[in-house]
Structure to design on (150 residues):
């Protein structure tokens, strides 16, 4: 498992250094901001919607490597999905990062999100990893108030 661990860390580092879809979106249909006071992570999520489908997604923000990598990975996996599919992914993802044995057996249907399974070993990092998702849900729900992990 050591090699896999190394690989996962490389993917996380890569996404935190060169986050995908990291830009402002001037013509976004929905925008939401999120804040994780525990770590100081901040994120703004922009969505372009096509009916129920997330046609495009972008984000900006600042925070720790985990929060950035998680937002980057999320933006890749939810693009093109429906709101309901994104919600289901978040459920599985949240379960993984809060589970004791997630590293041993990450859920198969999470795709590249599985690289964040190691977060489950660091409970204080769970909020970093889920901030972008909470913010995405706010954006999909059209909520005005900032999303918070608290
Ligand atoms: Zn953080």
């Amino acid at each position: 498992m050591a090699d896999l661990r190394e690989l996962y860390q490389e993917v996380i580092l890569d996404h935190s250094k060169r986050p995908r879809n990291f830009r402002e979106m001037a013509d976004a249909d929905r925008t939401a901001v999120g804040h994780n006071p525990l770590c100081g992570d901040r994120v703004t999520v922009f969505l372009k919607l096509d009916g129920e489908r997330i046609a495009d997604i972008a984000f900006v923000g600042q925070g720790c490597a985990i929060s950035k990598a998680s937002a980057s990975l999320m933006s890749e996996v939810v693009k093109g999905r429906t709101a309901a599919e994104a919600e289901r992914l978040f459920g599985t993802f949240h379960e993984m990062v809060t589970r004791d044995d997630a590293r041993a057996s990450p859920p198969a249907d999470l795709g590249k999100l599985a690289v964040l399974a190691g977060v489950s070993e660091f409970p204080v990092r769970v909020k970093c990893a889920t901030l972008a998702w909470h913010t995405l849900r706010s954006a999909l729900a059209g909520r005005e108030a900032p999303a918070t992990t608290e």
Remarks:
- The two ends are 33 Å apart (CA to CA).
- The chain is about 40% helix and 20% strand.
